[in-house]
């Protein structure tokens, strides 16, 4: 095969590969983009990103890497990031910490094995977080403590064996269903606005709700916000006596 023919084949392959990496404007003001086959957020260089608020990435073949040290990423206003169509996501040390206004994050079905506190900014503004359908095994207190504004959290369909729930003043919905949890303890005083807790389809043999001591010892009736609790499809043989009496009506 001649050098010319090899060059033509190489050029065709290069053009075909480059053509798969695209970004489309979702609105006329460059506030929203949909991109395909990105290997890093820094590759969005054909559009101004400083005012970008919404970003969706769809990869079928390309691994996406986020969080490199000394990154040149410049997306100070990004608030919505959908990576649910990225089957291979690699989070480096800084993760999403360079996105200070990120409020809605979807990393479901991305093959993520671990989430670290360093992946998120010190003051984390995320209010909706979907990390379902990954292979996470642990959610530590150091990690979850970052999410002081989190309202909606989904960690369903992972491999979780240990979850530590710290004080999360805004948390309203927590989905830990379809994991490998054998025990789970939660202090409702840490999550005063928790309305729905899903723990179905785990391996729970023990479940305990701890009420704040000042409530247990008080004669004043306290109405907690928890309205829905799903413990179905577990191996719980008995529940601690009277632990639900002060919760009010559950669905």
Automatic annotation (TrEMBL):
Signal peptide: 1-19
InterPro entries for this protein: Leu-rich_rpt (IPR001611), LRR_dom_sf (IPR032675), LRR_domain-containing (IPR050216)
UniProt KW keywords: Leucine-rich repeat, Repeat, Signal
Entries under Gene3D superfamilies matching the protein: Ribonuclease Inhibitor (3.80.10.10)
Cellular component GO terms held in the UniProt record: cytoplasm
A Pfam cross-reference name: LRR_1
Protein name: Toll-like receptor 3 isoform X3
Gene: LOC117571878
